[in-house]
């Protein structure tokens, strides 16, 4: 999984939006061409976040990101790469790497965990 941190995404109508969109779409197309693309999702800004914690059995809900967060997560890509080297190569190709940082992290395989989204 590529976790995209600390890069500002221009909004439609902003200067640079079309260029950024073209670069991101070209990156996604290259990942599809390689057969590794599983999904990709930009996230809305951290101001839209709601943080949930449970302390001593009580659910606490706070508007905004966790107070101690120093960086913001802007989006994720999930790839099915052959190895870490391929994932790192793709992270370097990701257009957002020039603005922020890309964390590469394997998705954990947990025996017995059904990770498929339930659809009703």
The parts where pLDDT drops under 50 for at least 5 residues are none
Provide the spatial order of strands within the biggest beta sheet.
2-5-1-6
Continuous helix count: 2
**Average pLDDT figure:** 86
The SSE string, one letter per element, is EHEEEEHE
Distance between the termini: 26 Å
Give the DSSP E fraction (strand runs of 2 or more residues): 25-35%
Q: What structural class results from the helix and strand content?
A: alpha+beta
Number of distinct beta strands: 6
Shape: flat
Give the radius of gyration: 17 Å
Largest sheet: 4 strands, antiparallel
- What percent of residues adopt helix (DSSP H or I)? 10-25%
List keywords for this structure.
two-stranded antiparallel sheet, YCII, YciI family protein, alpha+beta, single chain, 6 strands, flat, 22% helix, 28% strand, Dimeric_a/b-barrel, 120 residues, 4-stranded antiparallel β-sheet
């Amino acid at each position: 999984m590529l976790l995209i941190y600390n890069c500002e995404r221009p909004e439609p109508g902003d200067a640079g939006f079309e260029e950024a969109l073209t670069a991101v779409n070209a990156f996604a197309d290259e990942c599809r061409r390689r057969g590794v693309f599983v999904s990709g999702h930009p996230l809305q800004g951290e101001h839209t976040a709601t943080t949930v914690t449970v302390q001593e059995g009580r659910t606490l809900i706070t508007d905004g990101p966790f107070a101690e967060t120093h960086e913001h997560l802007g989006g994720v890509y999930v790839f099915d790469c052959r190895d870490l080297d391929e994932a790192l190569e793709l992270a370097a190709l990701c257009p957002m790497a020039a603005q922020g940082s890309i964390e590469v992290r394997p998705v954990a395989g947990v025996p017995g965990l059904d990770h498929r989204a339930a659809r009703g």
